[in-house]
TrEMBL record:
The keyword Protease does not apply. It comes from Populus deltoides (Eastern poplar). Belongs to the glycosyl hydrolase 37 family. Signal peptide: none annotated. Its EC number is 3.2.1.28. It is an enzyme of class 3 (hydrolase). The keyword Hydrolase applies. This is Trehalase. PROSITE patterns: TREHALASE_2. PANTHER family: TREHALASE.
Amino acid sequence: MSLTTSLSPNCSGTDTVVATTPLVTFLVRVQETALGTFGEEDFDPKLYVDLSLKFNLSTTQKAFDELPRSGENGTVSVEDLKVFIATYFDDAGDDLVYYDPVDFVPEPEGFLPKVKNPEVRSWALEVHALWKNLSRKVSNGVLEHSELHTLLPLPEAVVVPGSRFREVYYWDSYWVIRGLLASKMYETAKAIVTNLIFHVDTYGYVLNGGRAYYTNRSQPPLLSAMVYEIYNRTCDVELVRKALPALLKEHAFWNSEIHKVTIQDAQGCNHNLSRYYAMWNKPRPERSRKDKESASKFLGNSEKQQFYRDVASAAESGWDFSTRWMRNTSEFSTMSTTSILPVDLNVYILKMELDIAFFANVLGNKSTVESFLEAAEARKNAINSVFWNDEMGQWLDYRLTNGTICKESETWQACNQNQNAYASNFIPLWIDLFHADAALVENVMRSFQSSGLVHAAGIATSLINSGHQWDFPNGWAPLQHMIVEGLLRSGLKEARSLAEDIAVRWIKTNYVGYKKTGAMHEKYNVQKCGEFGGGGFYKPQTGFGWSNGVVLTFLEEFGWPEDLSIGC
């Protein structure tokens, strides 16, 4: 099949950049100075862009510029820098205060009724109790003097992922909410949605996370899915009424000219699909030096800028980082996220279209129902035309031959599908439109079972051991959940049994890891039960929002019989 693609003819908007704040720019200078002073070991660059000022910016900058420096690089001594930071900054994380959720009770009524094993039940209650540890509210200081903080104001309390992720994150919140619903914490779940709607009202889209340096990109768009799940439990029509205008705005954002690519197939049919496209072309403030080092391979400024945009766009995808976004899987500098049409992003937007139609129906808005069912049908056809690979029985990411070069059209070859196995190749199963087709599910399930992705302790993210965290051997809670839920909802007996098998493996590895370390982890090693994952550019984190949410969701769905052992 050959396909023709077109970006908007004059390609306007593709050089879009959302300006950062003077405070972020200054904190990046502090971060780079700190790296020179303290050295690489145990250095977390994010810490420095999360600091809050005790005094105004000009006073702080003046004091910083007056610090004694030595050597060619103008290094500040360890003692001087420590004193400066203690004098002029509040600690990272002080801008959020602990918050006691109003709807938390130690053992909610009707909590996980299918969990019969006392050991598993007592662990599940400990995981449930973690919602209290992870609940925060933006401090009054941020609300009164936002110019002193990179944390952005929010109207309601939040649940953070944990550890260095001290602020709210967009796509994490979907699985946090699934867990909160299992914990009967409906008010806390609604508050998260209220905050994300506030993002859309303020910025035009939901931000990657709740910091000033995240305003240049979004994350996988799951706001509609959050509202849908809460409505399913609570029948809260007011929440739907409040959310719908924001969802329409978010849908427009993901279909705006920077994200939308039009493809013409061999039959002359046009298909619209979306891509990740960060509005940023510089090093990311939260990781400035490393981004610069990676870009040093490029000589030209425009090449560097394109690389920075592709790196920020990979962060927008949530898969930061993975060989999925690289032209050469062993070379980070070949990052080309904006040249890829991702399967999963388009599945999330399809879900958004179906959800919007559902909400419009709840509110009696017939014309919106019709137009969004039509949009969903069109995107489903686009997903099947562009991503589906019949031979493999998977949906594959599609690479634009000439990347983001502005051309009216370009003919695509089927060989531009990325034939490497990624868990994302199976995400369409999550959506009713796909898992309702029994023959398709059987075909995809066979492909999934022979893909090499299913391991002793869960589903691997890819088969490539690149050292990046969204690759082998790491398994991530959201990917386990979407695939398991898709298989389960297909209604096929064999699919349910496979779903349950994967869920049991995942619950076990989380349990054993918790017993060994006293914590829930951000990611796990799917080859070794009870071992947390590694790789990437920062130390493995604990907490952990989406891991807690998925464990509680799986236990609610599948339960745990009294006689089933929980060890590895």
